[in-house]
Amino acid sequence: MTERGDALAERLFGALLGTMDVQTVYLGDRLGLYRALEEGGPATSQELAVRAGIAERYAREWLEQQAVGAIVECEDPTAPAVERRYALPVEHAEVLLDPDSQSYLAPTARMLVAAAKQLPALMDAYRDGGGVGWSRYGADMSEGQEGGNRPFYVGSMGSWIAGGLPETHARLGEPDGRVADIGCGGGWSSISIARAYPRAEVHGFDLDEPAIERARASAEAAGVADRVTFHAMDPGEAEPSHRYDLVTAFECIHDMPQPVPVLATMRSMVDDDGAVMIMDEGVAETFTAPGDDLERLMYGFSTLVCLPDGMAHPGSVGTGTVMRPATLEGYAREAGFSRIEILPIEGGFWRFYRLHT
């Protein structure tokens, strides 16, 4: 084999190992195995089996696999199999269990497993040009996306708005500020806005009724339900007399089969001196190949999830995850905006835009 072929084979072998890690992390997350180790401390396979309510033989194999892969630690590998004790390092607990940490990756494992379950349907869609709708991916996809985005919203929302829209930041600090959050999903963007601006009223809109139900429960638990109202509806059906100081759409425009009407609705909702802010993937501004890890990640999500979801709807424009600034600008101008502005916000995975009326 050539050197180039060897390099690809080595890369794919590493990807195979990574795929197995993702699937076993999914088991550890969904069966509560990591939580049982974190809360109960080091355990033998029998102790973990009792804590988590699983069979000892599976607990033993999973623990050994996790230890071989350096995800959990084995205190004495030379001890008899049933006597070995395993521990979850505190640093790894943050990655696997802390819902507010920006290192939290267990939800992404749920998303990838959900996508893998739909591979037969995806093959059909690739052949006939149809799609695989969001609901077909199930709770693992919806809740996984919610959990993956939550720590970024919780940890950064106030600084994002202050850094990109200082006048809006000041307005929301005053009494009676109003925000409309479009495509809010499980609600953590809306909740985080309410936390950042204790005087503001926030309205979240999304068509996913189960996600809206989770959003309402989360707002209640977060103590902001008196200022955050969630609507399981198209924002175009909102009361037209209601105008907002800020209208947002976080990581959802690229998923919409028809983004232009949604953007036009956002334009109609914003007050004359208000602002429309979009957050979407921070992909390169132009296509290049090979691409960096972020491009690879976003094309992976696009081919497996976002494009098939968008294509499941008649008349879809088929944006996909990789929505570059020029694409959004075309949609925005068609919706009646005069231009888009890339905001000076350090967003990591994300890029922030202001759409000017």
Number of helices: 14
List the secondary-structure elements in sequence, H or E.
HHHHEEHHHHHEHEHEEHEHHEE
Question: In percent terms, what proportion of residues is strand?
Answer: 5-15%
Largest sheet, spatial ordering of strands: 5-4-3-6-7-9-8
Mean pLDDT: 96
The CATH topology of the largest domain corresponds to: Rossmann fold
Low-confidence stretches: none
**Cα end-to-end separation:** 58 Å
Content-based structural category? alpha/beta
Gross CATH architecture of the largest domain: 3-Layer(aba) Sandwich
Largest sheet descriptor:
7 strands, mixed
State the total count of DSSP E strands.
9
CATH superfamily of the largest domain: Vaccinia Virus protein VP39
Helix content: 40-55%
Alpha-carbon Rg, integer: 22 Å
Give the CA-based shape. globular
CATH class placement of the largest domain: Alpha Beta
Integer tally of domains: 2
Can you offer a commentary on this structure?
- There is one protein chain.
- With 357 residues, the protein is of the alpha/beta class.
- The protein has two domains: 3-97, Winged helix-like DNA-binding domain superfamily/Winged helix DNA-binding domain (Arc Repressor Mutant, subunit A, Orthogonal Bundle); 149-356, Rossmann fold (3-Layer(aba) Sandwich).
- The chain contains 14 helices and nine strands.
- The strands form two sheets. Strands 5-4-3-6-7-9-8 form a seven-stranded mixed β-sheet, with helices on both faces. A two-stranded antiparallel sheet has the order 1-2.
